[in-house]
Specification:
GO terms for molecular function: hydroxymethylbilane synthase activity. With about 325 residues, the chain is α/β, with parallel strands linked by helices. Helices cover about 35% and strands about 25% of the residues. The protein is built from 11 helices and 13 strands. Helix 9 (about 220-240) runs parallel beside helix 10 (about 285-295).
Length: about 325
């Protein structure tokens, strides 16, 4: 491989390729003359589109095959939605950069342009996320949750095909695909706390690869990395995965960090939500403190029940 070329691995969905393009363009701007070759890779999460994510398996559904390509040298860097990245990275890999966060909130796309508060009783809501499901059922137990899989365009199409009242997607993906005009309402964090890392892109590289590390570190956004490090520390201390009904959202204001987290039962009846304040320069401590607070409130019992229920459903 030429010294002025890097190979970038990504999932092959339209959104993933769009996000990879954003990273490639940023690298070319930072390093004129650098050739970035994009290599789409099919992951486990892309192969089982007719099964709920919670039944396919817990960790690394959308990154395992990409990480394998990174470890064996087929690619030099990988671009992921940070919310898809397991709390513990594969041995030999590390975060090279976390880019500036796009809108972290969830978006409601309603068939009749209704806002969340105006959705009728027993409305059918489409989402692939247990995290969204439990928060919706907590405040609206009458909702009928319909599991959706597929890329963004497929899920939007199912709004009509399945006669749903609304679907819920990440605002960031819709914005990056130029579909922000489809958003009926951005759901505030006090209604639906975002997924851990939602809206942020992470560039994963091999440990010890100084050349690639030097190229990608110019794309790192300090505040986003601090906030998402706190969120991911919270996830790690709870032992959760990207499909567990756990959520956290960190916000940086100068040198201060505010972190809110949530754990809930699958039916939404038990929902624990707490917040801590900390220092932006110490995000790991904030994530651990928040996890310990929720564990003291019974989060471990909720998570044991959730894991048992998911295991039973997967049989």
């Amino acid at each position: 491989m030429r010294n002025d070329t890097v190979k970038l691995g990504t999932r092959g969905s339209p959104l993933a390729l769009c996000q990879a393009g954003l990273v490639a363009d940023s690298l070319r701007r930072q390093w004129p003359g650098l050739e970035v070759v994009t290599i789409p890779i099919k992951t486990s999460g892309d192969k089982f589109l007719d099964v709920a994510l919670s039944q396919v398996g817990g960790k690394g559904l959308f990154v395992k095959e990409i990480e394998e390509a990174l470890l064996d040298g087929r690619i030099d860097l990988a671009v992921h939605s940070l919310k898809d990245l397991p709390a513990e990275l594969a041995p030999g890999l590390c975060e090279g950069a976390v880019m500036r966060r796009e809108d972290p909130l969830d978006a409601l796309i309603a068939r009749n342009s209704l806002r969340f508060a105006d959705l009728p009783r027993h409305a059918k809501i489409g989402t692939s996320s247990l995290r969204r499901q439990v928060q919706f059922l907590h405040c609206r137990p009458d909702f009928q949750i319909v599991s959706l899989r597929g890329n963004v365009q497929t899920r939007l199409r199912k709004l009509e095909e399945l006669d749903l009242e609304a679907v819920v997607l990440a605002s960031a993906g819709l914005i990056r695909l130029g579909l922000q005009d489809r958003i009926t309402e951005r759901l505030p964090a006090d209604l639906c706390l975002p997924a851990i890392g939602q809206g942020a892109l992470v560039i994963e590289i091999r440990e010890g690869d100084k050349r690639t590390a030097g190229l990608v570190e110019t794309l790192n956004h300090r505040e986003t990395r601090q906030a998402t490090t706190a969120e991911r520390a919270f996830l790690r201390y709870l032992g959760g995965s990207c499909v567990t009904p756990i959520a956290a959202f960190g916000e940086i204001d100068g040198e201060a960090l505010a972190l809110t987290g949530m754990v809930a039962s699958l039916d939404g009846k038990r929902l624990l939500r707490e917040a801590v304040s900390g220092k932006a320069e110490a995000p790991e401590q904030a994530g651990q403190a928040l996890a310990e607070m929720l564990l003291a409130g019974g989060a471990d019992e909720i998570l044991r029940e959730v894991n048992a229920q998911l295991l039973e459903k997967g049989k």
